[in-house]
């Protein structure tokens, strides 16, 4: 079939790659069910690959892990995720936990006798129609809604019983077993103010519940990975460059000495709208004694192997984008994607299994463009050209973040725009990841240096390709929605159409209403409403809304807590009152992730709204 909105229903998604029994890769396989009387929904099952695809479950199964005689996974029971285990000897899966709050994560001990659980235990949230009382922040989070009043705890399951091991005033965030299985490492904030500022500490707890603080208190700590010599490897920083600070890969020896092994744009921050599920990207010890971790560099997320002495080597090709990795019987398997394919199971350069080999049509590879800016830096970008000689109408599409990137991963919606006859130009302006710390750090210059890069790149491709400079649209989501608002206000005659999706238009209201409002606003702009209100207003597109002339489609989800719906409501209302052609595409029950993991029929309706708007005004 061609590239149409209904193609989404045919896609399959691979995620959560881990080692399975007999040295075979184990992963989650997700497709889309379309019941006759109910809305379409995602269906996730466990599968393994032994030269062919083999399903291990038919019911819902996520977050798999194999240890000994069991494969563990999570499944929802009465709306709460519980832990199950599937015996390799055969038979039905057994429910391991029956906690009222369910579990939010788990780690099986090295000997398989114990399981560390991240849970809120027997806490029962108030009924949906009951009042809530809070004395902390945040009170909500995107994708989760209103947060429980009970902090997340560390429990220990052993001999069929689960009991609390660590209870703190703040959430336990991450957990890892010591190699000997005689204790656990975990991260948490020590006070509400640390939680508000994305500041964590690392701790060790023995099986007796004795907790000792190890380090931290300056910034986030991600991906604790114990080493065989009693040390720890982890990603961390101290917010030295505000919201654009890149992580450093640290090694802390058993005697407490710390050294930095590497710095970069760790984890896969390359945008895609054909992913469902998770994957290992944080540091992991390999069988060769090196640390393996995913790093985004110039539009590709690659796997890096680092010795404890700091010697680093790329171990995946730049032609593939790494979503997850696992060692299975000492062989390195990856989930990889590229410009024209979603996640595939790979080993080295070899593609072992592509779940969309039949469903996904042959897609054109975007044309890479490198624009040399007047300041001397290079902006990497891409262009998708439709069929025919042109000149083509063109959409400048802007990614979110701002600290993410476009690159070597499939963006189905951009291919859809191209198939409908629109060229698409997209790039990684300053603020994007993968080009070094100085490039990632916007330095509180939102709407300044990023605008220069975006418009400079646009002018460059208009002069290089058969594009119609009189038929240019701008669109984007989240930070891309903010920049869409900003550019149409700052350059009112530049664009023929705009789509602003889950955007920000008013920093002052964002500060109090967003789930990350206070910390994100201060880390990005260095301002608070009572200290530097003029900064927040000057950086708000709302301050310039009277200049907008561009016909604008406003897309927003009602349960978006990252960029709350008042942002879209305000922008739509102001444009409508000013007489600008505008339309509000408002989506119930969805959050900030609508375009990537929202209910399939709502995702398709969103794409069709985009196409209708572009066809009308371009």
Helix/strand layout:
Elements (H helix, E strand, L loop, with lengths): L12 E7 L5 E9 L7 E9 L3 E3 L6 E6 L2 E8 L2 E8 L6 E2 L7 E6 L5 E6 L20 E2 L3 E2 L6 E6 L2 E6 L5 E6 L5 E6 L3 H5 L3 E7 L4 E9 L1 E6 L5 E5 L11 E5 L5 E6 L1 E2 L17 E2 L5 E7 L2 E7 L5 E3 L6 E8 L2 E8 L2 E7 L2 E4 L13 E6 L5 E7 L7 E7 L13 H8 L3 E5 L9 H4 L8 H16 L2 E11 L1 H12 L6 E5 L5 H7 L3 H9 L7 H6 L13 E6 L7 H14 L3 E6 L6 H4 L2 H18 L1
Parallel strand pairs: 34-35, 34-36, 36-37, 37-38, 38-39
Antiparallel strand pairs: 1-2, 2-3, 3-4, 5-6, 6-7, 7-8, 9-10, 10-13, 11-12, 13-14, 15-16, 16-17, 17-18, 19-20, 20-21, 21-22, 23-25, 24-25, 25-26, 26-27, 28-29, 29-30, 30-31, 32-33, 33-35
GO molecular function: omega peptidase activity; serine-type endopeptidase activity
EC number: 3.4.19.1
InterPro entries: 6-blade_b-propeller_TolB-like, AB_hydrolase_fold, Peptidase_S9_cat
Question: How would you describe the overall organization of this protein?
Answer:
17% of the residues lie in helices and 37% in strands. It is α+β, with helices and mostly antiparallel strands and 618 residues long. The chain has a domain at 369-505 and 540-617: Alpha/Beta hydrolase fold, catalytic domain (Rossmann fold), CATH 3.40.50. The chain has an 8-stranded mixed sheet with strand order 32-33-35-34-36-37-38-39, with helices on both faces. A hairpin with a 2-residue loop joins strand 29 (331-338) and strand 30. Helix 6 (507-513) packs across helix 7.
């Amino acid at each position: 079939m061609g590239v149409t909105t209904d193609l989404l229903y045919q896609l399959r998604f691979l995620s959560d790659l881990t080692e399975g029994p007999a040295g075979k890769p184990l992963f989650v396989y997700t497709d889309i069910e379309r019941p006759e009387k109910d809305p379409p929904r995602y269906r996730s099952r466990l599968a393994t690959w032994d030269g062919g695809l083999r399903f291990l479950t038919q019911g819902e199964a996520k977050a798999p892990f194999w240890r000994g005689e069991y494969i563990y996974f999570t499944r929802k029971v009465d709306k709460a995720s519980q832990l199950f285990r599937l015996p390799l000897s055969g038979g039905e899966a057994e429910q391991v936990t029956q906690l009222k709050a369910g579990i939010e994560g788990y780690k099986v001990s090295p000997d398989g006798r114990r399981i560390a659980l991240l849970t809120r235990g027997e806490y029962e949230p108030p009924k949906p129609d009951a009042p809530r009382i809070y004395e902390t922040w945040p009170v909500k989070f995107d994708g989760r809604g209103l947060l429980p009043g009970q902090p997340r705890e560390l429990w220990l399951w052993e001999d069929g019983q689960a009991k609390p091991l660590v209870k703190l005033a703040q959430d336990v965030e991450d957990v890892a077993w010591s190699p000997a299985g005689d204790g656990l490492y975990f991260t948490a904030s020590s006070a509400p103010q640390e939680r508000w500022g994305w500041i964590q500490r690392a701790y060790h707890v023995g099986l007796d519940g004795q907790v000792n603080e190890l380090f931290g208190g300056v910034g986030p700590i991600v991906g604790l990975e114990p080493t065989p010599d009693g040390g720890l490897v982890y990603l961390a920083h101290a917010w030295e460059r505000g919201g654009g600070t890149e992580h450093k890969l640290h090694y802390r020896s058993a005697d407490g000495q710390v050294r930095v092994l590497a710095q970069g744009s760790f984890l896969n921050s390359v945008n895609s709208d054909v992913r469902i599920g998770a994957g290992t990207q944080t540091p992991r010890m390999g069988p060769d004694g090196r640390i393996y971790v995913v790093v985004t560099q110039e539009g590709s997320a690659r796997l890096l192997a680092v010795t404890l002495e700091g010697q680093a080597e790329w171990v995946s090709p730049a032609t593939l984008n790494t979503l997850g990795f696992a060692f299975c019987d000492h062989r390195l398997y990856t989930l990889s994607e590229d410009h024209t394919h979603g996640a595939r199971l790979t080993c080295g350069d070899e593609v072992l299994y592509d779940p969309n080999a039949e469903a996904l049509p042959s897609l054109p590879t975007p044309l890479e463009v490198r624009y040399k800016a007047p300041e001397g830096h290079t902006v990497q970008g891409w262009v998708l050209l439709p069929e025919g000689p042109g000149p083509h109408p063109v959409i400048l599409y802007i990614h979110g973040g701002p600290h993410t990137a476009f690159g070597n991963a499939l963006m189905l919606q951009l291919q859809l725009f191209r198939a409908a006859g629109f060229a698409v130009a997209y790039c990684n302006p300053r603020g994007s990841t993968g080009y070094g710390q100085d490039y990632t750090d916007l330095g509180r210059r939102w709407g300044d240096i990023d605008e220069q890069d975006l418009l400079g790149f646009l002018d460059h491709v208009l002069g290089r390709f058969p594009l119609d400079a009189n038929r240019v649209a701008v669109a984007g989501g989240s930070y891309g929605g903010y920049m869409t608002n900003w550019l149409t206000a700052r350059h009112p005659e530049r664009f023929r159409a705009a789509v602003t999706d889950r955007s920000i238009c008013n920093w002052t209201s964002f500060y109090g209403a967003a789930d990350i409002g206070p910390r994100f606003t201060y880390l990005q702009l260095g301002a608070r409403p009572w200290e530097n209100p003029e900064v927040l207003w000057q950086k708000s597109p709302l301050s310039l809304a009277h200049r907008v002339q561009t016909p604008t489609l406003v897309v927003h989800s009602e349960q978006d807590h990252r960029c709350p719906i008042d942002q879209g409501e305000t922008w739509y209302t102001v444009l409508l009152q000013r007489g600008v052609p505008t339309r509000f595409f408002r989506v119930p029950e969805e959050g900030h992730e609508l375009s990537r993991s929202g209910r399939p029929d709502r995702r398709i309706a969103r794409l069709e709204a985009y196409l209708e708007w572009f066809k009308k005004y371009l």
